[in-house]
Here is the input.
Amino acid sequence: MSDSRERHFDTLAIHAGQAPDPVSGAVMTPITLASTFAQSSPGVHTGFEYARTGNPTRDTLERHLAALEGGAHGLAFGSGCAAMTALLQTLKPGDHVVSCNDVYGGTFRLLTKVFGPAGIDTTFVEMTNPENVEHALRPTTRLVWIETPTNPMLKVIDIERIADIGRAASATVAVDNTFATPVLQRPLELGADVVMHSLTKYLNGHSDVVGGALITSDDSLHERLRFLQNAAGAIMSPFDSFLVLRGTKTLPVRMQRHCASAAALADWLSSHAAVERIYYPGLKDHPQHELASRQMAEFGGMVSLVVRGGLPAARRLLERTELFTLAESLGGVESLIEHPALMTHGSIPKDKRLAIGIADGLIRLSVGLEALDDLQQDLDSALQESQRALEQ
Ligand code: P1T
Here is the structure.
């Protein structure tokens, strides 16, 4: 589809970057599995030569993702962590990163256990206060890493403010937009240089792909990332690229339902006797509710809560839900429940985890597309069970 800037997001989600196949007329993007492409003379080819470097199905997905985020360029990787790795590989030993302190456990692990020993130091700050970023900057700071809403505490970080601070320091500002998706939040329009996604989550939306993406409008950054994608080779497969293209067609309608059900459950849970604390940016008493209202179209499908009774009650709750499957990950059509301290954020040392707020009673919900009544009943009976664990 041409001139994507004039179309509404819902239309882009279905058409951007895609056109019927010029050979067969196939309406949906074909899966091209060939690992190599014929050349008529050495170096003379159709634009594709070897499938690590470029593949028509992945190419379509990359153009599509760029359009969804309002960027000029997209790149698809074998996982969200592989996408982050490519971005971090643009740095060199001695460079410094400022990151928000509440990030996906795998992001923390990558920064501290892989790139730390390679000479790239990261300072983790409480980024809901932008001044903390200013104080953490060093002359060597090259990257500011924002995740918002954060995983799992659902804090909201002011992208526009932090992008200004990063730009003034000549640092690249990256936003992990996995939780919000471009339906709810557009980091490039707010001044960020690059958007990262775990495609594994809402963008694919069906819990059957692991993938990642980087989107930017900065031509030279894109060229470097494209070089690294090919040189290091952590590409997304043609089949997975096809599945993500299929997933994003329903992203706007899925997000509508995820958000509506999460908001209703958060509201109900906030006065549930078994719930000590609730974290959802859509609740009026969330500390960054006003910022979230400005920065996001809606408040997302993720809800975190602290169950009364700590780990024993949490364990019982996690064992007793039937519709909410106990599993890592998020953003699929099905509802998931998990325990950050023991599961997704287990790689963060306990003192750091507790300082962020990842308590032993903390539970994270990915609210799926099942009927709201059924989800509420499932949680209610498991929450009641969790309190019986305390009485025994
Ligand atoms: O799993 P992968 O596709 O490599 O993406 C990593 C990643 C990056 N950023 C955010 C915000 C994430 O949530 C994740 C992966 N998160 C989980 C698996 C999880 O359950 O939180």
Remarks:
- Residues 79-81, 104, 106-107, 147, 151, 176, 178-179, 198, 200, 210, 212, 328-330, 344 surround P1T (CB under 6 Å).
- The first helix runs from residue 9 to 15.
- The longest strand covers residues 141-147.
